[in-house]
Design goal:
Helix 14 packs across helix 16 and helix 16 crosses helix 18. This protein has one domain: Cytochrome p450, CATH 1.10.630. A hairpin with a 2-residue loop joins strand 6 and strand 7. The strands form 4 sheets. The chain has a 5-stranded mixed sheet. A 3-stranded antiparallel sheet has the order 4-12-9. It is of the alpha+beta class. The chain contains 18 helices and 12 strands.
Length: 409
């Protein structure tokens, strides 16, 4: 660590508040201004503050060995000290560290491997084609719920062996439970807890079924892997399945919406994808994830006092890589404010999926789904258009699309 006498103090980090900014100003405008002026800012969070790292060069340090993943701190700061939400956060691998995180993640990683998920491409393409054909030439529809939400839900349901008839309530559980991860609206807490309780009970039944009747599918393999290790509680086993379903559903749905919207806002790039859907689907997906990241940041906790960009961050302080800022950092990306599926400066490890030991376990499946959906729409509905109001991403730890109406043609 640098000499602490040469460092600026934590109190010297500029404090900003989104609520105080003009409603006409976009988040990206604010981050661009802040990033040019300072590498770090502090934002109010619950009963305290979180430091946001704004520049790409800070990422490796902020997610490195000097910090750890948030555990239950974020819930405690929101006044959630017990109950279904607290228990889920305490048991899921996303909010664990060290040996506990590795123990929870290993059975998932083993059964959710890249090769296995790549084999899901034909299924993703077939489901997308089926949903497109049902709506082709039939006028505007709710793209968010009737299409984008259906793709990951149907795929994860097939992976887990969930009957299609259970999908409506299953999707509601996913939507409600996803709110447990971010900052919870107090008025929504009872509904979130109700859905999380019902969701958990449903997963318990699925696990019991696979133990009694193994099918050679993902869930059967996962049950066998956890039984072989013998070092996970029943609550932990269940929480990883619930967490995996969330990771592969909510974020993917929103990415499908905003990436298609940006493509249609840039007709020349949409025409390029239509002309070569298989050749450009990966580039289009990666640019969509960069330009409108669905996850707003990578939160961490300083293990001990640490120096970041000339400031002394005290041990125990909460900090995060701001993906809304870092993924538009001009030190990394040429013309970062421009949506460009032809760019050549995408990073090998896309930060939209996180970084380090906690990188998204569902990355491979999310990529497959997003790429195959974009390719299918370009191939089958090349004259697709947005109808009505442009979609927007609501602020939060996971940014959700407010609405989006589309016509396939």
């Amino acid at each position: 660590m640098a000499d602490t006498l040469t460092l600026k103090s934590y109190n010297d980090i500029p404090t900003v508040d989104f609520a105080q900014n003009s409603p006409e100003a976009s988040s990206y405008d604010m981050f661009r201004q802040w990033r040019a002026a300072t590498p770090l800012v502090k934002v109010p969070i619950g009963f305290g503050h979180m430091v946001l790292a704004l520049r790409a060069r800070t990422v490796e340090q902020v997610v490195g060995s000097e910090t750890r993943q948030l555990e239950t701190e974020s819930k405690i700061l929101q006044g959630v000290f017990d109950g279904p939400i607290y228990d889920f956060i305490a048991q899921v691998m996303l909010f664990a560290n060290g040996e506990v995180h590795q123990r929870r993640r290993q059975p998932v990683a083993r059964t959710f491997a890249f090769k296995l998920m790549e084999a899901m491409r034909p299924k993703a393409a077939a489901i997308a084609a089926e949903l497109i054909q049902e709506r082709l030439g039939k006028g505007p529809f709710d793209y968010v719920n009737e299409f984008a939400a259906q793709i990951p839900a149907r795929i994860i349901a097939d992976i887990l062996g969930i009957p299609r008839s259970d999908l409506p309530v299953f999707m509601q559980w996913i939507s409600d439970t996803a709110e447990a991860i971010g900052f919870i609206d107090v008025a929504r807490r009872p509904q979130i807890e109700k859905s999380l309780t019902e969701f958990s009970a449903y997963v318990d039944k699925l696990l019991a079924d696979r133990r009694a009747n193994p099918r050679g599918d993902f869930l059967s393999e996962y049950v066998a892997a956890t039984a072989a290790s013998g070092d996970m509680t029943e609550g932990e086993i269940r929480a990883q399945v619930v967490g995996l379903i969330l990771a592969g559903s909510d974020t993917t749905r929103n990415a499908m919406c905003m990436t298609l919207f940006q493509l249609l806002q840039h007709p020349e790039q949409w025409r390029a994808l239509v002309a070569d859907p298989d050749g450009l689907k990966k580039k289009a997906s990666e640019e969509g994830l960069r330009y409108e990241p669905v996850v707003s940041g990578i939160p961490r906790v300083a293990i001990e006092d640490m120096a970041v960009e000339g400031y002394l961050i005290p041990g125990g302080a909460m900090l995060a890589v701001s993906l809304l800022s870092v993924l538009r950092d001009p030190e990394v990306y040429a013309n970062p404010e421009s949506f460009d599926i032809h760019r050549t400066d995408q990073q090998r490890w896309h930060l939209a999926f996180g970084a380090g030991a906690h990188r998204c376990a569902g990355e491979a499946l999310a990529r497959v789904e997003l790429e195959e959906v974009l390719a299918a729409i370009a191939r089958l509905a090349p004259n697709t258009r947005i109808v009505g109001q442009a979609p927007r991403l609501n602020p939060g730890a996971i940014r959700t699309v407010d609405q989006m109406r589309v016509e396939f043609a």
